[in-house]
């Protein structure tokens, strides 16, 4: 049996359900769907999943699940000790199923459930002991389906070949796919040239497998333990199984916000009510019928045992607090793909809470006053809050293939992870929590509107909009509202993160950004949370918060802005960005690895939509920047 150690966080991304992993013994496997997680251990004992549960009420509502779960950790048995959930593993299936013999080149299909190294039967018949290797090619579609490359169909140029002869896979020594050739004992042969190519809403494989006939995807989902076809009919394209576009995990995250304003003594009862579907439904029904919470009615309705240690006043206060949570959750937008508007709406609640002081076990924010700072800060910022403790929940909500941004709805993504999604209360998604600290910075809306109104600023961002439109047509990217304030806040966050790594000792990948930007007329915003988070319950050590205090932040901001005025790659960085774009998808102006880029895992936009010119100006137009006095005019 093949085994591979995987960190729990990596079971969210990049090795969640539907992703492929190569075990130490060389076996390529695909992570099984969530139906097969938390079943039984190796001795048939049912898993106790209670200890793996994670509660994040806002994210649960948005993703349509009852709770989240940590991926199981592997625990060994210990003599004389009772160890719960011993020897739990996450199941993987062998994929691709097609194998070839490196010695005799024979192709052979193996079951998904097959374990261990597979012998070549052709070599064994001749007295040689040889083992099969999995083919390096697969086929997939942009709807998220994955299947073995159609070897028999391809070599016979037929969607329904009748020949069942022995096939072989040869390499003629070249470096291109055209040098890979599949043959059949019937005499047919064909190379694999161009099988990965696609154009528009079609692909070379779909158009050329059988002359005059389009061969589309069969809708195979091997992560659910089956190779049976389903309806799909999206263009099928070939791919190397190790290609970077075979799997893009859809990760959703949220900063934990206290669900109620109740005292800590009552929080346990509020949580208990919220986790009892029938009782919270009754409380909401009473509210809709203009009836006040009544502890006696709840006790008589079958909840006496649950509520007996609480007084009537405590029960009714907790019912009102739980009602506020339930009614507030109705405003949480449903997650239907990469929708910019719903994500913006979801984050508004976070920005509102981070803008004020709060002290809870999961979130502690100390409000800073801009007047306490010197230099340009009082004029440029309206909020500078120190987030001394935060909890972030990261969840795998689905995945996509070929294109990183996909619009499928919530139910489609659930079907990718579940073969048979359970009812709402029993439905869950894999996730994990991290704890940390951060700085919450909001730009002055008055100064921002005055800056945005400049024609030069709008024209400058218009170049970036054109570059993105070109990339959007090529890579099937979603529509974006690329405004001057968005590019400004995003670039400023990168400049500060790069400077903070020198000031407070964190690694370049430790700091992350969370953007809160809106151009809505009724609720404009331009803020960013720069934070660091770790997997243990204690979080981080406070160095980031310290750098946000008066006397420290001024120096960090000044150094970041002065460093942005001249890049080590200038004048090339400034000039090529403005003329043709640079970076991922050519969607950056004046921003490169020498000045404004950060590790990709630290950026929400994969290092796109950056421009130093909007922050500090350019040599030809110093007034273009939001901070001109700290740039070329200094």
UniProtKB/TrEMBL annotation:
Biased-composition ranges for Acidic residues? 334-343
- Identify the stretch(es) annotated as Disordered: 328-347
Q: Sorted alphabetically, which InterPro entries does this protein's record hold?
A: DrmB (IPR047721), MZB (IPR018973)
Where does the MrfA-like Zn-binding domain start and stop, copy by copy? 492-595
Listed name of the protein:
DUF1998 domain-containing protein
Q: Which domain of life is it from?
A: Bacteria
The upper taxonomy is: Bacteria, Bacillati, Actinomycetota, Thermoleophilia, Solirubrobacterales
